[in-house]
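Input sequence (135 aa), recorded before submission:
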Amino acid sequence: MTNMRVLARLWPLRHAFAVRADSGMTEVSDLAGKRVVTALSSQAATGRGNEAMLTAGGLATDAVQGVTVSGLSQGMDGLTEGTLDANGITVGIPLPQQANATIPGGIRYLSITGAAATDAAITSYTAASIAQSDI
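Predicted structure, C-alpha coordinate format:
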Protein backbone atom coordinates (compact mmCIF):
# COMPACT_ATOMS: atom_id res chain seq x y z
CA MET A 1 0.00 0.00 0.00
CA THR A 2 1.82 3.04 -1.22
CA ASN A 3 0.84 6.68 -0.68
CA MET A 4 -1.36 5.70 2.26
CA ARG A 5 -2.37 8.45 4.68
CA VAL A 6 -3.94 8.28 8.11
CA LEU A 7 -7.48 9.61 8.04
CA ALA A 8 -8.29 9.11 11.71
CA ARG A 9 -6.95 7.45 14.80
CA LEU A 10 -9.67 5.80 16.87
CA TRP A 11 -9.74 4.03 20.19
CA PRO A 12 -12.52 2.70 22.38
CA LEU A 13 -13.68 4.95 25.20
CA ARG A 14 -15.24 2.58 27.71
CA HIS A 15 -17.67 4.30 30.07
CA ALA A 16 -19.20 2.61 33.11
CA PHE A 17 -20.71 3.34 36.49
CA ALA A 18 -18.17 2.97 39.29
CA VAL A 19 -19.34 2.09 42.79
CA ARG A 20 -17.58 1.12 46.00
CA ALA A 21 -16.70 -2.57 45.77
CA ASP A 22 -18.24 -3.19 49.20
CA SER A 23 -21.60 -1.66 48.17
CA GLY A 24 -23.09 -5.00 47.13
CA MET A 25 -24.11 -3.54 43.76
CA THR A 26 -23.10 -5.43 40.62
CA GLU A 27 -25.55 -4.23 37.93
CA VAL A 28 -26.91 -0.86 36.83
CA SER A 29 -30.39 -1.96 37.94
CA ASP A 30 -29.05 -2.02 41.52
CA LEU A 31 -28.81 1.79 41.41
CA ALA A 32 -32.56 2.28 41.99
CA GLY A 33 -32.98 4.85 44.78
CA LYS A 34 -29.22 5.52 45.00
CA ARG A 35 -27.29 8.82 44.68
CA VAL A 36 -26.03 8.73 41.09
CA VAL A 37 -24.29 11.32 38.94
CA THR A 38 -26.75 11.95 36.11
CA ALA A 39 -25.41 15.28 34.85
CA LEU A 40 -22.12 17.13 34.66
CA SER A 41 -22.33 20.90 34.26
CA SER A 42 -19.04 21.05 32.36
CA GLN A 43 -19.54 17.89 30.26
CA ALA A 44 -23.08 17.52 28.89
CA ALA A 45 -22.16 14.54 26.69
CA THR A 46 -20.89 12.56 29.69
CA GLY A 47 -24.17 13.17 31.50
CA ARG A 48 -26.02 11.87 28.46
CA GLY A 49 -23.83 8.77 28.58
CA ASN A 50 -24.77 8.23 32.22
CA GLU A 51 -28.47 8.57 31.34
CA ALA A 52 -28.02 6.10 28.48
CA MET A 53 -26.41 3.57 30.83
CA LEU A 54 -29.32 3.93 33.26
CA THR A 55 -31.80 3.41 30.42
CA ALA A 56 -29.88 0.38 29.14
CA GLY A 57 -29.90 -1.04 32.66
CA GLY A 58 -33.69 -0.74 32.81
CA LEU A 59 -33.93 2.39 34.96
CA ALA A 60 -35.51 5.76 34.24
CA THR A 61 -33.47 8.72 35.44
CA ASP A 62 -36.13 9.47 38.05
CA ALA A 63 -35.59 5.98 39.56
CA VAL A 64 -32.32 7.24 41.07
CA GLN A 65 -31.45 10.28 43.16
CA GLY A 66 -29.88 12.24 40.32
CA VAL A 67 -26.93 14.43 41.24
CA THR A 68 -25.26 17.10 39.11
CA VAL A 69 -21.53 17.62 39.55
CA SER A 70 -19.24 20.03 37.76
CA GLY A 71 -16.86 17.44 36.31
CA LEU A 72 -15.41 13.95 36.45
CA SER A 73 -13.15 14.59 39.43
CA GLN A 74 -16.03 15.92 41.57
CA GLY A 75 -17.98 12.72 40.87
CA MET A 76 -15.08 10.51 41.86
CA ASP A 77 -14.46 12.67 44.95
CA GLY A 78 -18.10 12.09 45.96
CA LEU A 79 -17.70 8.34 45.51
CA THR A 80 -14.47 8.34 47.52
CA GLU A 81 -15.98 10.48 50.30
CA GLY A 82 -19.19 8.43 50.41
CA THR A 83 -21.52 11.27 49.41
CA LEU A 84 -22.35 9.53 46.10
CA ASP A 85 -23.21 5.89 45.42
CA ALA A 86 -22.22 5.80 41.73
CA ASN A 87 -20.39 7.89 39.18
CA GLY A 88 -20.10 7.37 35.44
CA ILE A 89 -16.45 7.37 34.47
CA THR A 90 -14.13 6.28 31.69
CA VAL A 91 -12.58 2.95 32.61
CA GLY A 92 -8.81 3.00 33.01
CA ILE A 93 -8.14 6.73 33.33
CA PRO A 94 -6.26 7.93 36.44
CA LEU A 95 -9.32 9.14 38.41
CA PRO A 96 -10.90 5.69 38.97
CA GLN A 97 -7.47 4.17 39.51
CA GLN A 98 -6.85 6.71 42.28
CA ALA A 99 -10.28 6.03 43.82
CA ASN A 100 -9.60 2.28 43.66
CA ALA A 101 -6.38 2.80 45.61
CA THR A 102 -7.99 5.21 48.11
CA ILE A 103 -11.27 3.45 48.96
CA PRO A 104 -10.85 0.47 51.31
CA GLY A 105 -11.71 -2.55 49.15
CA GLY A 106 -11.54 -0.49 45.96
CA ILE A 107 -14.18 0.15 43.31
CA ARG A 108 -16.29 -2.01 41.01
CA TYR A 109 -17.73 -1.26 37.58
CA LEU A 110 -21.39 -2.18 37.17
CA SER A 111 -22.65 -4.54 34.45
CA ILE A 112 -25.46 -3.45 32.17
CA THR A 113 -28.00 -6.23 31.72
CA GLY A 114 -31.62 -6.54 30.66
CA ALA A 115 -33.80 -6.13 27.60
CA ALA A 116 -32.58 -2.59 26.88
CA ALA A 117 -28.88 -3.52 27.09
CA THR A 118 -28.44 -3.68 23.32
CA ASP A 119 -26.63 -1.59 20.73
CA ALA A 120 -29.97 -0.82 19.07
CA ALA A 121 -31.52 0.48 22.31
CA ILE A 122 -28.50 2.66 23.10
CA THR A 123 -28.39 4.03 19.54
CA SER A 124 -32.11 4.82 19.70
CA TYR A 125 -31.76 6.52 23.10
CA THR A 126 -28.71 8.51 22.01
CA ALA A 127 -30.34 9.72 18.79
CA ALA A 128 -33.50 10.81 20.65
CA SER A 129 -31.46 12.50 23.38
CA ILE A 130 -29.37 14.47 20.88
CA ALA A 131 -32.47 15.53 18.94
CA GLN A 132 -34.00 16.95 22.16
CA SER A 133 -30.84 18.64 23.45
CA ASP A 134 -29.10 21.91 22.89
CA ILE A 135 -25.62 20.36 22.55
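Checked by second reader. The chain has one domain: 15-129.
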